[in-house]
Amino acid sequence: MERDLAKYWPVFVLPTVTAFAIGFLVPFAMGLYLSFCDFTTLSNATFVGLGNYVRAFEDSGGFTHALWYTALFAGVSTVLINLFGLTVALLLVRGFRGTNLFRTVFFMPNLIGGIVLGWLWQVILNYGVLARYGVTLVTSEWYGFWGLMAVMLWQQAGYMMIIYISGLQSIPGDVSEAAAIDGASAWQALRYVKLPMLMPSITICTFLTLTNGFKLFDQNLALTGGMPSNRSQLLALNIYDTFYGRAGWEGAGQAKAVVFCLIVVTIALVQLRLTRTREVQQ
């Protein structure tokens, strides 16, 4: 069987490689080329060199602001979502009555589409919580920031909770028993036993929350639309607004997209490297 698989592996790999090339490699290569061009359609692209990249960073539409705003949002959301998801997971693995119901309730927000979720929370916050103080999510970029944070926490914490529960349940029972026999407190058992053995789950959850924070688009569009004055725009919405909302800025929008891609890929690779190294050490 192994000899047959070694002989015919191209037959099995070809469909996946073809789909990957058509769906990712070719569009990425075209997008990279267009970031160096002035264009409105593919047929009239004119090479302009690095002009689009210079134009992107000089953009009065706020690309630099959106960059650091998104980095801050991704960092804070990664910490909060993972802390909340892990805390809930630690509570639910205790096996008390109604555990499955609680798991379902916490996971359900992840099934709601981003546009619908953003609109629902916009109504709840603007006409409920914030209305009492005479402000809305678009009064300040920081109201929008924490509004988006609440939406992301509510939507994604349940998904991370499921991953952490799976990791906690895979920890051998005799390890926890040995820690208890040695007199370890609950905090010591968590810090020196559970967390080191949860590193694979932490790697996955950190990767997902970090990349989701950087790529967030639909909730941002529905919740604040970038208001006030584009100050609550995350990178994805800023790129979309540049490309589709400003005539003659297609090349600069494409350059922003390439920079955005490189930033996310670099940060994700560094994060994976750091957390996987931690797994090896443990």
List keywords for this structure.
282 residues, mainly alpha, MetI-like fold, two-stranded antiparallel sheet, 75% helix
Quick one: overall form?
A: globular
Count helical runs: 12
The low-pLDDT segments are none
Give the CATH H-level superfamily of the largest domain: MetI-like
- Named CATH topology of the largest domain: MetI-like fold
Lateral strand order in the biggest sheet: 1-2
Largest sheet: 2 strands, antiparallel
User: How many structural domains?
Assistant: 2
Kindly state the percentage of residues in helix: over 70%
Strand content: under 5%
Q: List the helices and strands in order.
A: HEEHHHHHHHHHHH
> What radius of gyration results from the CA coordinates?
23 Å
What gap, in angstroms, lies between the N and C termini? 37 Å
Overall residue-averaged pLDDT value:
89
Q: What would you say the CATH architecture of the largest domain is?
A: Orthogonal Bundle
Structural classification: mainly alpha
CATH top level label of the largest domain: Mainly Alpha
Q: How many β-strand stretches?
A: 2
